[in-house]
Amino acid sequence: MLQSKSFSRKTKQGKYLKVVREHYLRDDIYCGASICKDKDCKNQETRLNLTTPSSTLLILDTNVVLNQIDLLENPAMDDVVILSVVLNEVKNQNLSVYNRLRALCSNNLRRFFVFSNEHHKDTYIKAMEGESPNDRNDRAIRVATDWYQKHLGASVRVLLLTNDRENKKKATAEGIAAETIEAYVRSLDRPDLLDLVVVRQSSGDVNMEDVEDHRPSKRKAIYTEHKPMSEITSGLHRGIFHQGKLRVNRYNPFEAYVGSESIGDEIIIHGRSNMNRAFDGDIVAVELFPKEQWHDGKSSSIAEDEDEEDEDVHLVPNSSDDAPRNTKVVQEASNGMSSDSSRPTGRVVGIIKRNWQSYCGSLEPMDMPAATGGVAHALFVTKDRRFPKIRIQTRQLDNLLHKRIIVAVDSWDCLSRYPSGHYVRTIGDIGDRETESEVVLIENDIDSRPFSAQVLSCLPPIPWSVSSVDLENPNRQDLRHLRVFSVDPPGCRDIDDALHCTPLPNGHFEVGVHIADVTNFVHPGTPLDDEATQRGTSVYLVERRIDMLPKPLTEDICSLRSDVERLAFSVIWEMTPEAEIISTRYTKSVIKSCAALSYIEAQARMDDSRLMDSLTTDLRNMNALAKIMRLRRIEKGALTLASAEVKFQIDTETHDPLDIGMYQIREANQMVEEFMLAANISVAEKILKHFPVFSLLRRHPSPTKEMLEPLLRTTAALGLGLDVSSSKALADSLDQAVADDPYFNKLIRILATRCMTQAVYFCSGDLTPPEFLHYGLAAALYTHFTSPIRRYADVIVHRLLAAALGIYKLPPIFQDRPQLTSIADNLNYRHRNAQMAGRASVELHTLIYFRNRPTDTEARIVKIRSNGFIVFVPKYGIEGPVYLTSKGDKGGGEWFVDEEHQKVKKMDGSISYSVLQAVKIHMEVVEPQPNRPKLQLTLI
């Protein structure tokens, strides 16, 4: 049956066009129920297992899905119909919830079924005159519910779940069974499920009867009301407000920054009252304070572990809209900052887009009487100090007190000191290594679930080997005769890259970089490719690896192990002994690695003058070329920076750390790195030449003057003049930053690394060529090609290179630039999260290692603050605060900061500490707040 839908659309010229769309209706759309006797449904695969007369089929309205997704993900909620009208509404309102809902509907272990009510002749409805889209959709949901009840008969109870008071009233009047989500969950006699229910108190929602406010501050505003969106939009347009993403200081939760394009600078937000209920990651509207109240953050003190009650949140009148609230509060929140500086400072006046997620932490019982019905009120303390405590209600307080749990935020009104949320699930016992490792993954949004059956079905049968078809492929060159080898970290099993270096008769060298041909097995549009797209990167924790691709691919089929034939994508150069590239060619290949060396083994071979075998000679020749290439890059302005990489020795049985130390970089590491960089640059040039608009590249934006200011301040205090006018000038300055202290230069380079911007992926059509620059490498063009086993960006680049060589056609997605940009954004998000998870894993294992090992050691001061300093411990690669004043001494006690000379001194001048000075410290694990252990550093 064909229906016509018409509507009017306004053109850019202001005229109205009538648009008519055809809408097809059918009478054979499958209902999904196993109990159905209809001939059109009978032979279809069933998703709804309604086998008994007491079975209940649930149909949800849009608001229930949007607000109760945590509850729906619980296995107790099954036999659920998601109507297409609801699915579309959810997609338009919240993409994150939509993706979680789609995952539920596609999970074969869950009984969720999508019914196309908008295309069934008995359930499709037209909008009535004067009816709003929302009312029309509510009516469509009721019609579909009624159809299901008549279609399945009296043997099944069909129940509409809605928290909309009006929709429930209409459903009951129409003879449709309808309940609120709370009432339905209560009927299941599962108190634990009631903790998952989100309570919304809006005019259209049914309130939960046991929502009782026990707070003494009821009826008094603690925060200022947020401006309505209409006023925010107008204020942004007029330049009164400024929009940006709020980032809370990782070391000081009472200080945040909002990057604003409208003023070209970061706006500093001091104190939770000025953050005005904004969370880290929220897009906010900010109002600037008058210039005389601006602060620069130079001499801020180190935030201490203090109770939430010590924060600068305090009562404000309901009508208060003036700023700032209280000068003393602002000064305290700014931790003693001077007021004669020029960094913009302001307060949040509205939330443009929330970034609420699920948070990991533990419960802190509240000192108040429990409500009736066994409901206890508790404060949830997040493990990450950037987030405030969250108020929840629970019926299982005793079971949760000593557990790491997940809580989601539901709301935060101006009358409440804390946001309100609900319990989602329990992770495990506090302090357990497995539990705390899972917390790291959850906090950084890392998907560590096992690969689905659909994904695994995309893999070739095991054991796999190179076939005659591969060898006879005209697009693939047989390079098995070459002496190819790999050099990787010890114990590496997912080997992406291998090398060869063969002398030529003309005195030149043929040098090859051979990369695992992952795209031979990962095809566009397959479940395997979709999964890799979402995961974006493998994640390396201290004790485990979370793969982007299934292990049969990463450790066997694609891994370039020794003495087995493997498929590769090769970049091969002819080079002079001076490392000048004469020619470059690219080819798919078959290789057979003769050796899989560790960095230590490769270095030992090169250093042992007694070894003169062919493989060792290849290594030495390659290292000689790499040294020349590295020197040439540095001369062009490439930075040689340093980072505090930590290496653990892990017990193979318990997975606990046995030893900890700084990761050692050898010449062998630098040799491999040099040729990987060269391959990435060569491939970037090739793909951009063929696809100038939709190549995936990687850029490293130049750091701003403000970003480099901490480095300049430190080096100036040490009497060093650092030139930051270009990467070349900075590189030369860093080379000249030497002293008698052998560790001095590395510390300066570590400080320089922290001033850098983040390197990011981008689509070449989104920027102009001058913006393609990779500042750190001093490269005009750069991409990632050399690690497709562990990075999805490299998979995309392999496809681009294959298309540039005419091997394959370019997949259709590359013609869709917005989609490619979206993929690049996800890759940047995943790459950063993987980095943060790796660091968090190091912090966790550092705590485990030092838990029963109090240690005295030497540290270097890297940042001066008014109440202490931040130190770096070279032996262990650890950084942390050392306090000079007692807790709560906001005035700094007898100490003051000499900003110009980067010193903190006693008032009488008897003792002073300066930046980069060596100090003796004691390291010990303490727990100043319940369930928040930390490594405490104190001066000896």
Automatic annotation (TrEMBL):
The RNB domain, residue ranges: 476-807
Cofactor(s) for this UniProt protein: Mg(2+)
PROSITE patterns: RIBONUCLEASE_II
Hydrolase recorded as keyword: yes
Entries under SUPFAM superfamilies matching the protein: Nucleic acid-binding proteins, PIN domain-like
GO CC annotation: cytoplasmic exosome (RNase complex); nuclear exosome (RNase complex)
Main subcellular location: nucleus
Subcellular location: Nucleus
Top-level taxon of the source organism: Eukaryota
InterPro entries cross-referenced by the UniProt entry: Dis3_CSD2, NA-bd_OB-fold, PIN-like_dom_sf, PIN_dom, RNase_II/R, RNase_II/R_CS, RNR_Ribonuclease, Rrp44_CSD1
Region described as Disordered: 295-326
Residues spanning the signal sequence: none
Biased composition (Acidic residues): 303-312
Tagged with keyword RNA-binding: yes
Domain PIN: 56-169
GO molecular function per UniProt: 3'-5'-RNA exonuclease activity; endonuclease activity; RNA binding
GO BP: any one term: rRNA processing
Record family assignment: Belongs to the RNR ribonuclease family.
Protein's recorded name: Exosome complex exonuclease RRP44 homolog A
The organism's taxonomic lineage, starting at the top: Eukaryota, Viridiplantae, Streptophyta, Embryophyta, Tracheophyta
